Each structure stands twice: as structure tokens, then as C-alpha cells.
Amino acid sequence: MFNIFQYSEDKYKEFVEILNQRKSQQSSNVTEKVQDILAKVKQEGDGALIELTEKFDGVVLKDLEVSNEELEEALSKIDDEFKNILEEAKKNIESYHNKMLQRSWCDFQEDGVFLGQKVVPLERVGVYVPGGTATYPSSVLMNIVPARVAGVKEIIMVTPPDKEGKINPAVAVAAKVAGIDKIYKVGGAQAIGALAYGTESIGKVDKIVGPGNIFVATAKKEVFGEVDIDMIAGPSEILVIADENANPKHVAADLLSQAEHDKLASSIFVTTSKKLMDETIEELKIQTSKLSRKEIIEESLENYGLFILCQSIDQAIELSNKIAPEHLELMISNVTENLPKVKNAGSIFLGYYTPEPVGDYFAGPNHVLPTAGTAKFFSPLSTESFLKKSSFLYYSQEKLNKEGNKIIKFAEQEGLTAHANSVRVRVEDGRV
Prior knowledge:
This protein is α/β, with parallel strands linked by helices. The protein has 3 domains: 3-25 and 234-377, Rossmann fold; 45-229, Nitrogenase molybdenum iron protein domain (Rossmann fold); 395-429, no CATH class. It is built from 17 helices and 14 strands. It has helices at residues 9-20, 30-44, 46-57, 68-76, 80-98, 137-150, 169-178, 188-197, 214-223, 248-259, 274-288, 294-304, 313-323, 335-338, 356-361, 397-413, 417-429, and strands spanning 3-6, 105-109, 113-121, 124-128, 154-159, 182-185, 207-209, 228-229, 237-242, 266-271, 306-309, 327-331, 347-350, 387-394. The chain has a 6-stranded parallel beta sheet, with helices on both faces. Strands 6-5-4-7-8 form a 5-stranded parallel beta sheet, with helices on both faces. Helix 2 (30-44) crosses helix 3, helix 6 (137-150) runs parallel beside helix 7 (169-178) and helix 8 (188-197) packs parallel to helix 9. This is Histidinol dehydrogenase.
């Protein structure tokens, strides 16, 4: 059932091949289907959304937008305890993301020069919230709250309806708590098309964020450039590094927390203790038998679960940096000493009592993270994701006269004589 390795440089290629098998699971004709859907939405607008919702979700909608009455009905189905938990989680997410908020700045220099950067929030953002095998009110908070902190003027949410034409109550209450402006009952690639191009009901946005299936991910990739997107998210993954002091029951539980997401999810366990590895594998068998998503977990672990024995924690971290996991748990005694050694990871969970779900739901850091090794060059979703920047500068006449010949020389070196001339005419005239 499990892929067990003694780590070596040669074995690393085998690890990568196993992980990369997930990419081959994507259907070769998905892109063509998505392109057809996007073209239809671009041409036909709301009519296409209603038709495609009937085709894919099995429900005929009269109105795409969720009314206040529908929202109140959904909210009435959620108990006050969960609402309070959502409110507390929102406050934690706000507090964390407020610390990342950037400000415009200006640097005044000599000779009448000033230059700087103007930081401006995006005007309109679209948030995709999936339906399907599980619902994720936590993702609603993680996508909307940072946008609110950044100062986005309007945030709209799209999510597939159920067979009765309703939206999931937990998703609805999370959106309400997070401060959503409008909610539309549409999912799949057609929802991405509506956000990217605009329809009669749904206005075009500047950026699309939120997870989804392969059709949603492909659609986001196709519309990138028409609008911005957060990232192309792949299947979930976790890498746990544990020393001999870790509890095998805890390690197993954390590996299972990601394996239940998806049959393509990857759970990787790296340790210096053979005893801990053996005990963890036994715990995995025991705990899996008691979980509701048992079949998904078993297939995930069999195909993409890796159990790797290393000679040292340094070697384990070196391996982790090569893999660049979405989630990294350091279940080791000296986390503060080893944290600086971690170079590539979406989010890092420190110590024996910080399981990944603490970050998924409550603590404050964002759980929208780079996957499939992209943590080597991508960052988690954050306040910064909803800000854009413009540079500005001002040269006085005296400064341009002083530096003008250098700029003219630079432009002429590139063969751009009109560039050079725009500076020369000012320098020669002696006026701005």
C-alpha cells in the first residue's frame, strides 16, 4: 500500500516521477472543451450560463444572483456556534493580513527629483467557490478577507447551485461574514468565463481567485491576460518532517488530513527514525478505517503517499526544499534553529502541536498556497495579491539638463533615436 524509500540522490528522481504522475491524470481534451465553453459565454452571456448550468448541474435557474431572501434562508440553517467560529476566524485572518498591507511611498532627492510607488487596490475581484465532493467555507474566508483588507471596492462570488437551485448554507454564511457584495449561482468553466468577460448580470472583474476542479483551473489559465488570476492550483499535498520524539498517532492524522482531499493528493512523511515510520504506518491503517472518506484516502496513499527515511534532519529539509511542498510540518524539537533552513514551502507549521488544519481554518495565515513544486517561485495568497502598483517620478529642469546627455547616449546605444530626441529637445531648449 505504501511507497517506502531510503533517501538518496538517485531515489529523488523516483520521488519526482511519482509526484509528476498526477499531471498525466488530466484529460487531453479538457482544454478544447473549456475553450468551447468560454467562447459560448463570451458570445451569449447569461443565456449561456443558464443553459450550461442546466446541462452540468441539472437545474434550471430563473435568476443567477442570490437574492437577500435566499441568503437569509441559507443563514437560518447554520447554528450560531459555527457563525461565531467563522467570526473569530475572520478576525484572525484580518489581523494576519493587515500586517502585510503595503503603502504608497515617495523619496525626495536632490536637484528637484522625487520618485516613488503608488499602491492601489483592485476595483473588482471574483471569487470562485467549488461545490462537489466537499464544501469549503474556509476558502471563502481565505479569499474574501484579504481582498477586503486590501481595499478592493467590489467582491463577487460564484458557486455552483445544488439540484434545487440553492447554494450551500455554510458557504453562504461564510461569504456573509467575510463581507461579500454579490453571490451568483454558477460554477465550472462557465463561471470563470462570466467573471473574465462579463455578462448581462455578472460584471467583468480584474482578478479571479479561488480553487476548483480541472475545468475551472484550465479556464483560469485560458483567461489569464484578459484578467489576472491567483494561481493554477494542483492537488493538495503535505510533507511532514518528524524526529524520534514525534507521536506516530499525530503524524498519521496529519498525513490523512491531506489524503482525504482528493485521490490525487500527496502525503509525504520524512523521518530519521525507522521505529517512528513503522509505528506511523500502523497508525495510518487504524485511523483510515474509521474515516468517512476512506476510499479516497486509500487511493491517495497508495499512489502518491511517500515514506522516506533520512540520515539527518538537515537531509530531510534539503529533500523538502527540492520538493517545495504546499504544506510543510516540522514536527521536531528544535524548530527555531531549523526554520531558517527551509527555503521552499507554501506554509510552514512548527512543532508537535501545530497540525495543518490550524492554518486551514483558524489561525490567520492563508491556506491558498502554491502546489506541485511552485512554492519555489510562488507565494501564498495575501493582501498583496489584491494590490497593484504604479511607479512615478519627477525631474526638474535642472536635473534633466544635468543628466540628459547620459540618457541620450543610452537611447542611441539601443538605436532608439526618437527616445534620445525627446530628451535632447528639452536639453537644447533649456526648458521643460
